[in-house]
Amino acid sequence: MSRSFPYVLVTDRKIYPEPLIPYLKKRIPALSPFPAALILREKALPLETYRALFNKVAQLCKDWRLPLLAHNHPELALDEAIAGVHMPLKNWLLWSKSHPQKAAYLLEKGKMKLPYPHGVGISVHLLSEVETALQLGASYLIVSPLFPTSCKPNSLPLGLTQLPDFIRSSPLSIYVLGGLSWPDPRASQLEALGVRGAVVRSAII
């Protein structure tokens, strides 16, 4: 296992055996390697409910010195203490057009050289989406699903044969999601292909 290969945790409270906050308190300090960043991806929550949860997680991350990214709520990433936001491609397109000054501020965050995802991350599932993400100023990309995953059981995984096409198409850091362990025995192979790091959802259970 490469010591330089970072793992990013993306949360999903619906699959945890106990409520999100106590579960994170228990699992994150025990993870090896320690996460490079955490993305709070809690779908289907109203904004105010998500905001309250995000603030609690932000305090934990501050104590752990763990970079935190919002998911699909870019306004929460305007806080300078927050590393950034991760967004579906279409959602960032719409929000950035409606809030150009705020979008520019978030994109500026992504220009810093840091060893973890920051700024504005965009999810891509098709090679054709990479160019659009680049045009929108993305700071980094998450390519998925790489391998078969319970999160997207009906999606055809890209596998290692298609992954190099994504890497060649983008000058940005590329993280991969889907069917990965923590740590993953294929980390060295992924790193050799040019992958920046792994994003993991269910493997910490």
Radius of gyration: 16 Å
Overall mean pLDDT = 95
> Can you count the helices?
7
Largest sheet strand order: 1-2-3-4-5-6-7-8
Helix content: 25-40%
Got a strand count?
A: 8
List keywords for this structure.
alpha/beta; 7 helices; 36% helix; 18% strand; globular
What does this structure look like?
The protein is an alpha/beta fold and 205 residues long. An eight-stranded parallel beta barrel has the order 1-2-3-4-5-6-7-8, surrounded by six helices. It is globular and about 40 Å long. It has helices at 20-27, 47-64, 89-98, 100-109, 127-135, 159-169, 187-193, and strands at 7-10, 37-40, 68-71, 84-88, 119-124, 140-143, 173-177, 197-200. The relative contact order is 0.16. Helix 3 packs across helix 4.
Layout of secondary structure:
Blueprint: E1 7-10, H1 20-27, E2 37-40, H2 47-64, E3 68-71, E4 84-88, H3 89-98, H4 100-109, E5 119-124, H5 127-135, E6 140-143, H6 159-169, E7 173-177, H7 187-193, E8 197-200
Parallel strand pairs: 1-2, 1-8, 2-3, 3-4, 4-5, 5-6, 6-7, 7-8
Summarize this entry quickly:
Helices cover 36% and strands 18% of the residues. By secondary structure, the chain is α/β, with parallel strands linked by helices. α3 crosses α4 (100-109).
